[in-house]
Amino acid sequence: MTYTSPKVLTFEEFIVQYGDNTRYELIDGELRDMEPTGPHEAVAGTIAGRIYVEIFNSNFNWLVPKNCLIKPPAAEATALRPDVIVLDKAELSKEPLWQKEPIICNGSTIKLVVEVVSTNWQDDYARKVEEYAFLNIPKYWIVDFRGLGGLQFIGNPKQPTFTVCQLVNSVYQQQQYRLGDTIYSYILPNLKFQLDDIMYK
Question: Under CATH, what is the fold of the domain 2-198?
Fold first, then answer.
């Protein structure tokens, strides 16, 4: 990850300058270049597609927007841009910014967030775990298809890891899956797959 600007930005400045640029997010006023690669985007797209199919087949009143920012209410200069986000359509009427910008402020609108790990793995495994739990987002998936995370997060030796974080009493309980393991999700009960199925080959 690179820090592309030493200047501290406000949320409003970030939206004006980078709101439409999916390469960037804002954390505590610092502009973060998420450096998406082709393989990263391929994995994120595959996951989004599988989720969408399950939403459609189950007739859930949810959507998977192409582009969306999360503005945590307690963080004035932060705008998080998950790789995949699932929203509850019924809750969108309560979102103060949604009609003008694809920005979510209320955790109750969000059913699931997915981060595909790249060089900014520290944010995915630490900062965003805290932010998403504080927002009461029920499910957070961390897809580390290249095994980039620190040893304290994915173990030794490093290997591709899919971490399912389920919110229990405001704290994420984490379950890790490796290649060959079958991944289940209570939020999409008919969805089951393996990390192998979404790996970029």
Answer: tt1808, chain A (3.90.1570)
